[in-house]
């Protein structure tokens, strides 16, 4: 069993008084209640969790929630029942959790199919439609091999042993998202006497408030945790308000008909899952009004080699520090095109890491940021960008070059690159509703 080498000695919203044992890809690890599989693996110094679809390149943890595109694993239940394509950033750990990496053989660390990466020049997009067409009989020979290589994860073949149920519900106001905006909307609607349903996809209310420095923000004169607890208590006293955590909105249809999927027992060890409860519950909600408080998603930045393990969104790094008490790297570089990257850099430095560079594509940077970076001894590369990265199973260095002028690229060693590309509103449900 590996140790939690990246776990900070204090901080986070986890329960450090109890230890949870779980396994990933045949190795044993430890975590704490409140951890996701991703945060626990990062705490144990494991940056790689998957392999890419086609070239089997190493894949790490990019985000801290449902926005992560690559940290997909397989959860193995009782009797060998498999649940593929589960996001490690969303799966809560529990005692006895067994997770496996996908799209690799014989193991994640030693994937023989990684040879595809070396053959990339000979495997362009759609190569199988052009290469194996003649003579006519050749396609019948090659097709089974191509089909076997396609897809991520293996669909379970046996009968599903779990139970499911559906619920029909009407309400005056459906609030989707349990962050600051969603909590405020639900509280206002509840105080007005409306029948309210508040749906939050994660286990805890608070949204982005859980992933920022609690000393940096005050709401109504209160620390974020105190404010969240107060709102939760107030909502709990309202008979017409229902708060659903671990509940994702999966569809927004006509006439304010919204489908919600509640994960009822996925966070519990199989032996402790009550037989009377389903594994998941489908809520079919018809609302008079719908409040979309779904927040925003941080954008990555494109550059050569931006898919290596150890490259993460800056907001996600801050979330792992403040929510989970995890510092994913010790020598950290930050690439930014907006102010949020500087805030993340200072959070990382305050957590004890060495920030080896802040690379900002902008030529003009606010003087307070420059002064704080100078006070902390952080090198600044303004009007520059990352042009490439190096590393095998995780990032080892970046190349930084100016956007203008004659200066050449410089190489900077690091084991984590935090990328702050700005934020885009989460508009999936809004778009589906034809808003």
From TrEMBL:
Cross-referenced InterPro entries: 2Fe-2S-bd_N, FAD/NAD-bd_sf, FAD/NAD-binding_dom, Metab_Enz_Cyan_OpOx_G3PDH
Superkingdom field: Bacteria
UniProt cross-references to Gene3D superfamilies, sorted A to Z: 2Fe-2S iron-sulphur cluster binding domain, sarcosine oxidase, alpha subunit, N-terminal domain (3.10.20.440), FAD/NAD(P)-binding domain (3.50.50.60)
Endpoints of the signal sequence: none
Presence of the UniProt keyword Ribonucleoprotein in the record: no
UniProt entry tagged with the keyword Transport: no
Keywords: Oxidoreductase
GO MF annotation terms: oxidoreductase activity
Residue ranges of every copy of the FAD/NAD(P)-binding domain listed in the record: 172-431
The protein's name in its UniProt record: FAD-dependent oxidoreductase
Organism ancestry: Bacteria, Pseudomonadati, Pseudomonadota, Alphaproteobacteria, Hyphomicrobiales
């Amino acid at each position: 069993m590996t140790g939690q080498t990246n776990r900070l000695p204090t901080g986070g919203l986890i329960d450090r008084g109890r230890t949870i044992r779980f396994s990933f890809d045949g190795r044993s690890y430890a975590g704490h209640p409140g951890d996701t599989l991703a945060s626990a693996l990062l705490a144990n110094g494991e940056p790689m969790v998957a392999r890419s679809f086609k070239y089997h390149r190493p894949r790490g943890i990019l985000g801290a929630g449902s926005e992560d595109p690559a940290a997909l694993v397989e959860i193995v239940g009782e009797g060998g029942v498999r649940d593929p394509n589960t996001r490690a950033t969303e799966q809560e750990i529990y005692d006895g959790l067994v997770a496996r990496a996908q799209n690799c053989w014989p193991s994640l660390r030693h994937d023989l199919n990684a040879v595809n990466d070396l053959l990339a020049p000979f495997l362009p997009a759609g190569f199988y439609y052009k290469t194996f067409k003649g003579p006519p009989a050749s396609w019948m020979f090659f097709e089974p091999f191509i089909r076997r290589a396609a897809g991520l994860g293996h669909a379970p073949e046996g009968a599903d042993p779990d139970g499911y149920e559906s619920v029909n519900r009407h309400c005056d106001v459906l609030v989707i998202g349990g962050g600051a905006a969603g909590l405020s909307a639900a509280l206002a609607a509840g105080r007005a006497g409306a029948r309210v349903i508040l749906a939050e996809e994660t286990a805890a209310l608070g949204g982005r408030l859980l992933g920022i420095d609690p000393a940096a923000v005050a709401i109504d004169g209160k620390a974020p945790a105190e404010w969240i607890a107060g709102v939760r208590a107030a909502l709990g006293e309202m008979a017409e308000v229902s708060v659903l955590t671990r509940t994702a909105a999966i569809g927004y249809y006509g006439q304010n008909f919204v489908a919600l999927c509640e994960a009822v027992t996925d966070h519990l060890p199989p032996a402790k899952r009550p037989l009377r409860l389903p594994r998941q519950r489908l809520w079919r909600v018809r609302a008079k009004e719908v409040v979309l408080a779904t927040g925003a998603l941080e954008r990555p930045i494109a550059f050569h080699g931006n898919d290596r393990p150890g490259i993460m969104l800056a907001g996600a790094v801050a979330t792992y520090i403040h929510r989970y008490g995890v510092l994913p790297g010790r020598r950290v570089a930050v690439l930014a095109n907006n102010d949020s990257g500087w805030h993340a850099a200072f959070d990382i430095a305050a957590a004890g890491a060495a920030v080896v560079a802040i690379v900002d594509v902008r030529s003009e940077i606010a003087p307070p940021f420059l002064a704080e970076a100078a006070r902390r001894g952080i090198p600044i590369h303004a009007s520059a960008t990352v042009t490439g990265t190096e590393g095998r199973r995780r990032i080892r260095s970046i190349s930084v070059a100016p956007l203008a002028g004659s200066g050449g690229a410089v190489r900077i060693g690091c084991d984590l690159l935090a990328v702050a590309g700005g934020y885009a509103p989460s508009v999936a449900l809004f778009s589906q509703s034809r808003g």
